[in-house]
Queue: 2 jobs
Job 1
Amino acid sequence: MNSKKLAAEHAVQFIKSGMIVGLGTGSTAHFAIHAIGARVQAGLTIQAIATSEQSEALARELEIPIVSFQEVNEIDLTIDGADEVDSDLNVIKGGGGALLREKIVASASRELIIIVDESKVVSQLGAFPLPIEVVPFGIEMTMKKLAALLECPLTVRQSGNKPFVTDNEHYIVDCHTGSIADAGKLTRELNMIPGVVENGLFIGMAAKVIVGYMDGAVRELNHT
Ligand SMILES: O=C(CO)[C@H](O)[C@H](O)COP(=O)(O)O
């Protein structure tokens, strides 16, 4: 059994008719969107807001009703993947390049459920390169400021032989930070740099993490 699919299908059970649901991005979220589509076909009535053009296109294909932020005040529940999760349920996201919309949707949500396979659970965040979304204008200067703060190798994410461009027409800088001692402080410092739009640290945002295991087990991690 695919452990990402296991976590995704477990999470989708928390959706109830009438909810506004945030749809995540990535391969684990892809399984969740399919499971939501199946429940919609079976009579679940929800409306959804997607965190990327890709997830929105999939949702439309599966006939999941899509709404915009103009039409809702709040999102009831968002289900999204992650690149790393620690025991305090802090998370690194953005491996798929959708971190800005993911953070906007997560912060508009009453509840954020993160779905991962067991390989994503870590004791300290930072082995996965931290994605930072930056505006292309002045990126050389923004990267100098990032380098001064982080003191670690930085790379502009590529797609083919060009910079990867996000749904918001920005670039992603991947920062090989190594272990992050104080993720809360770092997220605030990063977002103070002009040119940085958002970073992939989601601190204190997840209410629950659902982990799928290779042996078929599923475990819920909650705040203690
Ligand atoms: O943050 C993300 C996209 O920006 C993804 O949720 C994250 O990269 C995990 O992806 P996957 O489920 O494919 O492992």
Job 2
Amino acid sequence: MSLIDARHIEFSHGGQRVLQGVSLALDPGEIVTIVGPNGSGKSTLLRVLIGALTPQKGAVTRQEGLRIGYVPQKLHIDPTLPITVNRFLNLPHPVDPDAAKEALRTAGVAGLGTQQMSQLSGGQFQRVLLARAILGKPDILMLDEATQGLDQPGSAAFYRQIEAVRRDIGCAVLMVSHELHVVMSASDRVICLNGHICCEGTPEVVSAAPAYRELFGTGTGGALALYRHDHDHGHDHDHHHHHEAAE
Ligand SMILES: Nc1ncnc2c1ncn2[C@@H]1O[C@H](COP(=O)(O)OP(=O)(O)OP(=O)(O)O)[C@@H](O)[C@H]1O
């Protein structure tokens, strides 16, 4: 059963229709990325899935008791406000110190608990936000442009961290990005959104799709190959062989 299942979503902000006929389901453990140009409705769709916005048409079904961990685009903390990572993790509710330690480890920032938030690098800061999302033991992690402000190697490292988190805690991941080639390499499935779903599939399928190329051009193929790293796709080969044998 899907963790979350959205069917035929239509959403308008005021009179402006932002989403139309959008259907998408997320299964346990999947990493799915939504890509799309600015203003294509990506953040709106995440907010509809979380339940922060109610669609005018269509329905969202969430598995009973579903826990969603949300990593925001960025979070501004007043640099003059002294607050350590540990204190930050205890807002708004106190958490178990061992759980906080474990979440920092899973997010790749073990041992940073006593640092000042203001002294973290961009990549460390995003990992602390990730640790805070992990603390709630989410079934789904949702990340909205979580690598904004990181350079390309920093973003690539962050997405590898996300894959490690998925392996560690077994959550599904739904993320939004327009850093196409970097983010796509970490995804099982990519959904190309422009108010409606233009195309979807594996990163390879989407980057070759005409609708995707129309939106983003053709220059991303090589970069995708560059960032692609080994995934276990043995089942694809099996499938291929069976297919050949049947012919
Ligand atoms: N609260 C709001 N009130 C009115 N219009 C809104 C609101 N939020 C978003 N919009 C409009 O809805 C459209 C989609 O916005 P949304 O933030 O979902 O897109 P996005 O794909 O996430 O964009 P970006 O990549 O720029 O973050 C935009 O035209 C935006 O101006």
